[in-house]
Amino acid sequence: MMNKQIILAALCSAGLISGCNQSTEQTTAVVANDNQRSATLPAKPETDAADMDVNTLLTVNGRPVTRAMYSLYFQDRMRGVPDAKTSAEMQMGVLNELANILIVSQAAEEAGLAEREDVSASLELLKAKLLTQVAIQEHATKHQPSDEEIQQIYDAEYASQSNTEYKARHILVKEEEEAKKLITELDGGSDFAELAKQHSTGPTGKDGGDLGWFDAAQMVEPFAKALTGMEKGKYSAAPVQTQFGWHVILLEDSRQSPAPTLESVKGKIQTALQQKALTDYMQGLRDSASLIFNEKNAKQAPDAQQDASMASSQQSESATEATAEKESGDTTAPAEQK
């Protein structure tokens, strides 16, 4: 099977698609002004336009091209074109492109290419993926969580949720002995923030080691464990080791954070309920389906020829896969946090 680049080159040379040598910014103008070249393979009209259904834009050898098909192709054709403005000329240019593609595809069908094993397998897989995507979208649309369901989850899991937040400073150094010396200096009355500015290798050193307010769960376990056992206004009596190095910690204050509001977690609850409903739906379908695995055949890897055909097919369906596939850390957070 030819790769995508060869196929595109062939279509360009035959005049089946326009704008082959143009940049993305020029595509709109090319489609609008290149109707003659895009219509080099016109189909002979078999039906008078007046007799066509209102949703039929043209027929190709008697087969209708509907508004829905054209709309899908037009959207795909204009993808990546910045500020694409449609015009009658552009729309006709794209319609002629679609007509040419269908002319070639019909010729391929007549030549029996649709029955070829790799082609029929690709078509079947594309159909299955598309139907799966549509089924999932339909299920999600018809099974929106009610306000009552969302409220029940909120009351059970969030309403009474209250965490302790801490305000602390720390000094991070590489060696345990250096951390012990700093504790000795603190015992002698040295200012914690000044020592942090002078010695801390962490990103908060320039701020006197100030970590602000945070939940202990945001910190690595040894740091959080040491912090939760400290008294306000006290610093750690011994250095605390983490994967970042050795810490001297000062707990300045602590407070109870209020439970999150319903509005702040409503989206999260809704997503979780939708995901559960979808999981239950798919599991129900699987439970009622008849599945018979041929493990011997399934465990055998495809041969080189099949691999090549599959790889080529996957290139042509990458856009479909991208729409079917359903987050990054805070880079400004101190390195000591998770």
From TrEMBL:
Molecular function (GO) terms for this protein are: peptidyl-prolyl cis-trans isomerase activity
Residues of the signal peptide: 1-23
| UniProt xrefs under Gene3D superfamilies | 3.10.50.40
Keywords, ordered alphabetically: Isomerase, Rotamase, Signal
- Report domain PpiC positions: 163-253
Disordered: where is this region? 294-338
| EC code | 5.2.1.8
For the protein in the UniProt heading, the enzyme class is isomerase
The record lists the catalysed reaction(s) as:
[protein]-peptidylproline (omega=180) = [protein]-peptidylproline (omega=0)
Provide ranges: composition bias, Low complexity. 303-322
Q: Which PANTHER family match?
A: PEPTIDYL-PROLYL CIS-TRANS ISOMERASE HP_0175-RELATED, PEPTIDYLPROLYL ISOMERASE
Which family does the record claim for this protein? Belongs to the PpiC/parvulin rotamase family.
Name by which UniProt lists this protein: peptidylprolyl isomerase
